[in-house]
Every structure is written in C-alpha cells, then in structure tokens.
User: Fold these one by one.
Assistant:
Number 1:
Amino acid sequence: MTTRRVFGAVLVFVAAGLAVAATFLSAYSVQVELQGRTLRYEASSWVTERDDFRGALMLAPLDYGEPAVGAALVMALSVVLAFRMPAARVGSLLGAGVLAGVAWTAIAGVQGTIDKLRELEAPVPFDVEQGDGVTVLVVAAGVGVVSAVLHQELPRRVVSEPIVTEGGAVIHQIEGDESETPPYGFPVIVEPQEPQEPQEPQEPQEPREPKEQKSD
Amino acid sequence: MLLLVLGAALAVAGSLQDTYRTAHREVTWTSTLWISKSSLPDGREDDAYFAVGWPVIVAAVLMAVAGLLVLREQTEFVGRSVAMGAAGALAGAVFVYLMLLRSQAEDMSKWPVDTGHPPSLTVLGGTYMLGLAAVIGLAGAALAQRKQEEPSPEDEEDVVVHQLDSDDDTPPFGIEIPLEEQQETR
C-alpha cells in the first residue's frame, strides 16, 4: 500500500469521525429577546437540545443524523475491509458520495427552515441561525471526497507500462542490490566445451569480462 | 451503464413530480423538490420547505456522465469512480429527504386538531420515483465496478505468441548470444 493510500485511509477515518460529530452539534437555533430575558430553541440532528419556549414554536429537529452516520459507517468499514480485500476500497467513494449528498441536502433543509422562520411576521424580533453542525458536516464531506479519491488505486497500466521515449531509458533501481548489471542483462552460463549436451544444473557463474574493450 | 442513465432520468423526472402533500385546516400544500403549491383559490406558489432539487439534479447528471465515461476505455476508471460517488450522493440526498419527510410527519402529528380535520402528510409518486432512482443508480454503479474486474485475470493468463517469418529455432536463452571472438571484433 502506497503512502498516498495510507494517507487517504487515515483521512477517510477523520472525515467519518467529523461526520458523526457534526450530527451531535447544533443544526439551527432560534433566539428571542423578551423583556430582558433570552429564550432560546436549539436542536441537533437528533434531538431538541434546548427549548425555552416549551413547545410553543412547534419546531422540531431535522433528521439528517441517521444518513450521516450511515455514510460514516460505510466509509470506515470500507477502509477496514480494504486492508484485506482491495476491492472494498470503492466503498470509501460510495460513503463519501453519500456524505456529500447528505451534507448538501441537510444544508438545503436547514436553510429552508431558517428562511421560513425569517418570513414569519412575528410580533417579537428573533434571530435564527444555522448551527456549527451543518458547517462541520460540509467540511467532513469535503475531506471525505478528497480522502476517498486518495484511497483509490490508480489504473495499473499507468504504473506498469512506463513510456520509453526515443533516446531515453527507464532505469529501475533495486533497493539493497549493489551488484552491477551483467553484460547481457542477466548472468549467462557459458558452456565453451560441449554445448550440445544437456545442461547440468549448476551455480550461475559470473560472466567473464571481455579481455579488451575497444572504444570508438 | 443503462442502469446509471435510467436512474439519472428517473431522478430528474421524480424531482419534477409531486413528492408529498400536507393537509391542515382544509388547505393542502402539494410540494415538489422545488416549489409548494397551495389549494387556495389564488393558487399561491412558494419555495418548497425542503427545496433539495439541486443536489438531486447534480447527482443525476454526474451519474449519467459517469455512465457515458464508463463506455470509453481511456475514461473507464474515472467513469467508475464518478459513478460510485454520484450514485452515493443521490442515495444520500434521497435518504435525507425521506428522513425530513418523516420528521415533518411526526411534527405535524403534534399540531392541534381544531376543525375536526387532523393534519396529515401524504407521500406522493415523486418520492417513490426518487427512491427507485437511488436504488437503480446504486445497482448500476455496483455493476460498473464488477465489469472492470472480470477481464484482468484473462489478460494475465493469455500468452501472446508472435510467429516470425524466420524458420530458425529459438536459441537456448531466448536471445542469440554472440561468441566472445565476435564480440571482441565489434
């Protein structure tokens, strides 16, 4: 596994963690200043965190927690499985795609709710805000898409078929092997006496160096 | 590829259809992914409460483009990756939409009943089309992945034999080795 893919796998985990964390942060909040008191409604994607209005505003959480956690699970599982089954790597793309779709739709849902609340002609001025949870979810989706791409294996032909241009040579350096390349590219077993007889298995010999080299 | 394009077409068509209808105090609002239309005599139209048309359209377009990219050998890898991401995005968007509708229905069930008509939310055909599009898209993306894995083992097993015009036997090492005397004279 290359460094790029390991880095991608770690980032996929980070994105999945961010996505799950985002669902527990505030999605949107409504705040009213009334006679010197501050009344506040605040909801995550799971539950109403705070409701000083005691249900009078009839607001409810926007349920995007389950899809976001589902996407995070797909991403994390695919990274774990990819260590044993390389084909599972594509699951991180699927999870990142789901997370991106979830984040965009969640933003649209929260923005729609905020716009509707702002349009209300309430007798008391109130503030409606998008919470940090939606912002973190978008960041998680961005990190998720980038990391899922890093996590993939590029097409094999690009790696295995280096393009040799005219006049240029591709040199592969084998680590830990200090020996020089033999004259024919591999050790040649020289049989000067009886080449017709079947070969006996023998240790490969060092090729003889030419006695004299002629340079042009 | 056909499944990807079919899923994309269904998603676009579903986004234009009515997805749900709410009824409260003898007024109904019928929504698509873009707008809500009331049953009042003035036929008032408003932005939909959950206006998630763009995520669905963008995911559908990406899915259709991926379906075309998969067909060409040079762009097959990109096509497969985009197909999986776009099908996931469509599925994620539809999943969230269904959850938003569920929370809306639960929310409405708590509203006060004052005229004998309890508030209600009815899911319409557009939502079912979107759900079907998401499933078809995921199936298409999964099949696009399988397609690329099949030919690779065959390529490794097949040996390509090139027959040259010469009748000479293949030398013992596969290449002709010149004798040392010949090498020295070069």
Number 2:
Amino acid sequence: MHAPAPPGGPAQFWLGVRMFLPVAISIAAYGVVWGVLAGQAGMSVIEVALMSGLVFAGASQFVALDMWTPGSLPILSIVIATAVVNLRILLMSATLRPLAAHLPLPRALAAMFFVSDEQWAMTMAEVRKGSGSIAFLLGTGVLSWLSWMLSTLCGRVLGAFIDDPTRYGLDFAFTATFIALLLGMWKGRGDLVPWIVGALAAIATSRLIEGNWYIIAGGLAGSFAGAVAETIRERRHVA
Amino acid sequence: MSLEALLAILGMAAVTYAIRAGGLLLANRLPATGFAASWMKHLPGAVLAALIAPVILAGGAAEAIAAAATALIYIVSRNLFAAMAGGVLAVYFARLVLGG
C-alpha cells in the first residue's frame, strides 16, 4: 500500500494546472469557434462573457446558440435544453464525493462549479494513479475557465469583422460544428441507437410542433432508446 | 444587453450549477450504473443528433454534400476547427457549382 495522497494544497493545484495545459489549448480552439458562432447568432460581447463565465459548459452553450433568436428568445426551451445536455455532469460530481469528504461542504460545493467533462476525466485519471484531489480539480478548472473565457471572447471579437455570413457559407458553420462535436462523442456501436432514434424523433417533432422543442424531444427520446438498448444488451451478456 | 438575454443566461447558469452541486449532494442516492446512468450518458449525443437531422433534411444538395465532407474531415483529422472550416468551404463551393 502506498501512503495516502496529501489531501490537497497548492502543489496539487499547480499540478492540475500543468497537466491541463494541452487540454486547455484544444478548449481554446473550440472556444474561438463558439465565439464566432455567438456573434452570428446576435450575441453581444457582454452576453458572451456572461454566458461563458457563468454557465461554463461548452456543449450546452453550442445548443443554446442554435436557439438564440434575439427579440423573441425561447428562454424556457433554452434553459430546459441546457439542463438536458448537462444532466450527465450530475454523475461526474457524484463520483467526486469521496475526494470532498474531508472538506467543509461550502468549499466543496464551490469547487463543483468547475466540473465538466475534461476536468473530471483528468481528475479521475489522477485518482486512479493514487493522487488527485479537489485542489487538483480546481487547478484544471481554473485554467479551463480562463481558456474558455478568453477564447470565446476572442472568437466573438474576431467574428465581428465578417459581415454577411451566408455569402461565405458561414451559416453552415453551426451544422458543421455540430456534426464534428457529435462524431467526437462516438464511443462505439452503442451510440448508433440513441443517435438514430434522436434524429428521427427530432425530424418527426419538427414537423408536428412549432419552435425548438424538437431538440429536447429528440434528445430525450434518443437517449431513452439508447439506455433501453444498452440494458437489453447487458441482460443478454449476463444470461 | 437585453432583459431576455440576461434571463436566459442566468437560467442556464442556475440550472447548470444546480446539476454540478446536486451530484455532490445526492452522491449516495445516484445510480453509477444501470438504466438511469446509461440514459444520462446518452443525452448529449442524442441532443446533437436531434439538432443536426432536421437541418440537413431541410437543406439542399449543397448542404448534404458539405455535411458529408465535414464528417469525413473530422473522422480523418479529429480536429473540430478543420472540420468546421472544411464544411464551410465545401458548402460555399457546392452552392457556387450547384447555383444554390
């Protein structure tokens, strides 16, 4: 048995920062793309700063942009879609509970603000190595936040120099980005069912109901079907 | 900044933080495996598929070609920015050629 890792401290924080550096660079590339699209969707610089700073969850911010129609914002469907896309984080912060056991609850809760896919994955990888702590998570999270904030603002400011997006085919940037984001989520054949059912349910809903509800309907139907298919496969595996 | 934008952003921020904090608070009651966990895991992919499908269906041949080009570039390069730029270029030229 190794001695238990020290419960945190500045050393863990800076280790998190150092290890996260390469990931921060790819987050920045993704942030610039989001910032450009945010400008196209009609978001102001202040709105970009507020959303990136307070929401700080990339995939849900991309989805919100697709629904961003200034003048008649569908606030309720934007908030519901955000919850649907981010619900997976619930399971991530749940697995961090053992790391937070020795911390005062308010501090542990404050640190949870920084939980997202990349930070969580890197912290859990560190835990498997016998290290890892909330301080480590904070190190990755603070760098991730800075990278996301600066890159989305850069994208928004740079994007302002492009006048008519359709003239350059830039209206397609949304769809192209979503296709790439989706393919990046591919983990195996288990993803086929949720994606296909989600797509079909969205197409059907978009024909039947006005507005953006097809995104939420497709997301819920597709993921439900994916879970049903996975459960059936696992039962067969056991039997 | 408009009131509606402020409300939407604050709503998004509140619901996202509630999820982040909720996971820690409910840790002992949440399923780590099984149906509910699998369902939550599949949400983001299904949402993205739901976003894309109606848009591609509503577009013309140029958009379909560009969508295929985007997918191909991403699979080969694994680079979000290259895929986006390639997709935009593809739709631009496809529209020029097809007159869309």
Number 3:
Amino acid sequence: MIKVNKEQNGSELYISLEGILDTPATPALSDALEGCYSGLTKLVFDFKDLEYLTSAGLRVLLTAQQEMDDIEGEMIIKNVSDDIMEVFELTGFDDVLTFGE
Amino acid sequence: MYQIIDINEDNLELYTSYLGEDLAENIGRSYYRGLVAVGDDGPQSGMVWLVKHLDEEADTESNIIWVRCDAKEAFDQMMEAYSERARSEDVVRSHVFIPVKGGKEMKAMLIEKGFNMRLSESDVVVVKLSELSEMPLMKKLKKAPIPDSIAPLNSLTLRTFRKGVSKCVMNGKYGLCEDLSELGIYWFEDEVSCVSSDDNGINGFFLFHLRPSGVMAVQLLVCLDNTFKTTLPFMMRQFVTAMEEKYGPDTLVELDRHNEQSLLLTEKLLPRGFGIPIYAGGRNE
C-alpha cells in the first residue's frame, strides 16, 4: 500500500512516498509520474515515510532517472532510511541515484 | 598510432591481465572475439564481444560485453577496427552493456560512436551463497527430499551428457552458451551442476561454470518439459546443497535471467533480487 503526494513548484516536482513501494504499489507511482517530465528541471523524492521498497520499486526509480537524464534534469532522493540505503548499496543503485538531505 | 591486435589463444597470455582472468578464459570459444589497441606502454584500449546467430537464419548480431579505454585515441582506433570486423561477419546490429559503476565516461564515448545508451537493469543477479541458503523458498525446499530424478552432473556418462545437450540445442535452448554443443563437460562444475532425467533421458539442466575469480556463474538453466515448476526449484535445491558442502558461504553466485524459466525461478527465490544497473545501448552496423 503506497500513498503518493505530489507537489509541483514551477519546473520542480516533489514526490513524497508513504508506505511500501512493492509490485502492487508501483503503478500508483508510475501513474503519478506519467506525463510529468516535460518541462521539468528537478524531480525530488522524499522517502521520509517510505518503509520498504522491492525490485519493482527500484525499476520505477531507474525509469524515472533515465527520463530525467534524457531531459538533462536533476533527480534527488531525500531522507533515505538506513535499510533502504542498504538496498541501494547492495544493488548498485547508489551509483545511479543522487541523494540529498 | 596504435597497433590493433585481434586477441586469440596464441597471444592471449600477453593480454590476460588487461582483460581479467574471467573474461580471458573465454577467448578461443567459437563466438568470442577480442581486440586490443597497443601502444608503447602496452594495451591502451580493449574490447570483447560475442557474435550471435552467426550460423543461423536470423540476423547476425554482436554483444559487446567488455570495453576499456586508457587512451582516447587508442579507443577511437580500436572502435574503427571493430566496425570493420563487424562488417566482415555481416553483423547487422551491435549491442553494448557496461556497468553504471565507473561507466559514465565510457557511456559518453560510446554515445559518440553511435550507440544509444540507456540506463537499464542487467539480467545478472549476484548473490552470496549464504543469502541463497537463507531464502524462504530455499528453506522450504530443504524440508523435502530431493527427487531421485535429480542428480549431480558428475554422475552422468559423457554419452548421456552429449545426448542431453543435443536435445537442448535441438530445442533452441543454449542458455548463455551459443557454443553449447562444442563445450565439453569439463567446462561445467560437475559437483554442483545437476540434471533432471525421466524415462526419455535428460529433461533438465542446471549447469554452472566456476570462473577463475571464484564466482559460480550459471550457464544453462532449463527444463524441457512441463514439469519445470517442480523440477527447477528442486534442481536449485540440489545446487545449493552441493555448494554448501563444497564452497564457503561468501562464495558469489551469478544468476543470469537468460530465459523465462530462469527469470521466474530467480524472482521466486530472490524476490528482492535486482540486476546490477547498467548502461545498455545499440547501433546499426
């Protein structure tokens, strides 16, 4: 179960996630991101209330990162828990993503 | 100016350290090709690729599986030589896969050479033996006895092995080995690799190769009949049990999700498993 909160401020989009980003939940995030990239310069994810993510969630993040790379925009992930950071490190995602405070 | 050299079994020793042992051991196999650009200080750029569908009706393609650059000019000359080699073998399209880790510069250079590079997920999932052992599915499988139909590879005669390989090749099941019919049984680690058999002979293979670095890498994971939903998990169980007896818990196991069956099995066994992030690209030749 995931709650996706979107907030757009000009060319910057902020998405905070609450709950678990697993296979059943990823369509909600994918839908929230669909069509948003045009004109975007910055995409920020806030993981403060994200408990857990699975490989399905990683795939959505990978796609989002590629989309932002395509438009030469910036994607940042904030407030990553130690558990989730461990997943990123084990999967090599720490080389793909940019993290912020 | 750099000297462009085709790597082969005769000169391999000169370039093994540049390629790395795991890659170098494949040079000499039918579908593997390698190039280095050598300057006064030794190799300054190198690449290894696999030619696919060379002897089939389908378009010939190339998978560049390793590329290294220590001097831009060497890389440029090497890539020109690669284009010539690709044309001479009627390669229609080249694909390239490089790890994201340390790959940003190479990505830019490959884009310059016409490859459309995109972030992707590798088919390869690398996991420690201890993690495999602890997976819920594995623990569940260990509660049941291994069926008599499943046995280690070293219990097979050469003749039976070859018959099984022929069956796979006839069904178009090569796994990661385009040259499966040419590889000897010795290529596979025969204590941890296993097979499944029925009254008609071999109906499943779980073949692994031990790389020089100590990584145990899947080569072929297939069940040829509709028992795959039970056969494959038990072959995995046989593999893990054999691994535990022979290798340490930190031994790395490389699972390449090269077909639907291996994808489904890996997803079931490792629900959080994710292939290493890569840049994947292609270009027409």
Number 4:
Amino acid sequence: MEAQDNIEQTLWAYIDGICDEQTHDRVAKQIATDALWGERYAELMAFNASLTNGLELEEPSVRFTKNVMDLIGQASVAPSVRAYINPVVIRSIGALLLLSIVVTTLYAFFSAGAGAAIPVQEITIPKAQVHMPDAANFINTNTITVLLCVNVVLGLLFLDTVLRRKARHL
Amino acid sequence: MHAQEDDIAIIQMVLQGQQQAFATLVARYQNYVFTIVIRHVNDRELAEELAQDVFVKAYKALSSFKGNSKFSTWLYTITHHTCLSHLRKKEHETVFPGDEQMHLWANGQDGSHAGTRLEQKAQQQLLNEAVKQLPESDSELITLFYNAEQSIEEISVITGLTTSNVKVKLLRARQKLKEILQTRYSREVLR
C-alpha cells in the first residue's frame, strides 16, 4: 500500500511537472519499462484530464458585476502606505529613541561612577515595616488541587482550540 | 487565463481615477472568486455576498498591489482570507449535497438520462458534485490548481502553506476525490 502511495506521489509530481530533471528522467524510464508504473500513469493521466477538462466554474448572478460596482461607487481606493507614511518622520522617531537610550545609559554610567566615591557607611537604607501575610497559610493541599484543576481545564481548552484549527486546515 | 500585463494596465487606469475600468477585472475574475468562495461556504447567496466583499476589499487595497505576483494570486489570497475570516466568525457546518440526488443522476433515474449512458456533461456534473463533497480546504486546492490555474508556489502564497505542504495536500485531495468517485459513482465516472 505504501509502495503504491509512493508510486502515485512520484507520478503526480511527474504529471504536474514539479519533479527535478533527474527524477523526471527516472520516472519516464520507469513508465516505459515497468507495466505497473505504465498502468498507474495511464490511470492518473486520465483522471488528471478529467479534472482539467471537467471541472466547471460556478457562476454568480448576472447582476454580480453591477452589484460590486454599486458598492465600489461608495468606496475609494485607500492611498498607498508609502503615500501617507513619511520615512523622515519614522527615522526621526527612531533617532529620538536611540538618543534617549544613549543619554540614559551615559547618565546611569556617570552617576554610578560618582556614587562609587561615596563611602558605603553613609548610605543608610530605611527599614520598611511591611506586614506580609504568611504564604504558608494560603498554600495548602486544597489550593494546589484547585490550581491544578484550573490548569487542566485551561490546557484542555487550549488543546481543543488547536485541534479544531488543525481539523479546519486538513 | 489573462495576461498579467493586461491586468496591470487596468489597475493603473483604476488608480488614475477610472473607476469603471474595475468592472473589467470583476467580470474577468468573478467566476473564479465565486467558485473558491462557494467551495468554502456551500451557500450561493452567502457566497455571492462574500465574493462581492472580496472585490470591494481588493478595490480599496488596489494601491497596495505591487505586481510582485499575478493579480489573480493577489485576489485569491484576499478571497482565501475573507473566507477563513468568515468561517472563524461563524462556525461553519459542512453541508453535503444530497446523496440521493447524486445517486439518481448516477443511476440515470432522474428522467433526463433514463435508460441511457450518462453523457459527458453529466459526468462533468458528477465530478463537480464530488469536488463539493471534499473538505473545504481540499476543494479549494483543487479549484485553485485546476480551475484558476495557479501553480504550487502561487497556491502556497494564497493559502500561507509551505510548497511541500501544498504538494502533499493536493495529492491527498486528489486521492480523496478519486475515492469519492470510485466508491459512489464508479461505473459512471471512471469508465
């Protein structure tokens, strides 16, 4: 079955003209010498011809063009991006950002240099009196179970979204 | 298919203010766009609405068409994204055409083919109905490749898939189509 699939895959590439020259020559030789390949090739060629000649286009209503032109009558062509974005403005904004980064870096660098001269003893950090709740009170078996459940549900929702998206594109 | 130069000349005319020239492009590509859309939504009325929307979007964005690809490829890319965006908004339910009707055609019992072999036209009709039974992404690929004559690379641009992915999906789509024809209408179509 897999061999059949490979033959078909190779033959379609040959028929569509998308295989390289070397493969093209090899397949042409195979078709001429191998009965199985020759038979499959004739079959696929017939199917390809029926697709090329037999598939019809659907036609919209006769008023279609008029309807589109009526809709377009109220619209206008959006100007090209280049027309309303001035590259000078973009470059100026970029230069300003770059300049601010350079200035900030230099300021920080020199401040640090000046600060290094201050004796360490002179710097006193005030002790803040912040009463933080004890995390141990909140983290217990129940909390972990609830968090795990929420994560599992979120994971399933994400998996469902991914699988739906994949199924749509298959 | 129409010459790319011809399309570009019309686009230039539209951009210079000759709005009516756009009607030529609409008339030229309406069947292709409509067919791609109907492969996605399987509802003529809705397909017509979406196809109109595609042309309006294309008109508004015409100045952004740089001519790096064929106009048709650019237009079908808009078509593809418009369809996907519609399907995302509204969960699409695939409605297959009535199997009973298909069997009636295939067996020549609908009156028009009674007692006779199916004519070429009827075989084409079966083929087209079989394409509609493919998943929407597969029937879109078949339409783009065979009807709209887009190359693998161009389909890759339109759908956002890699070329190797397009090749594999096209192969699978043809296999599925063949399977549908063989299992349901074998004697009539693949004689």
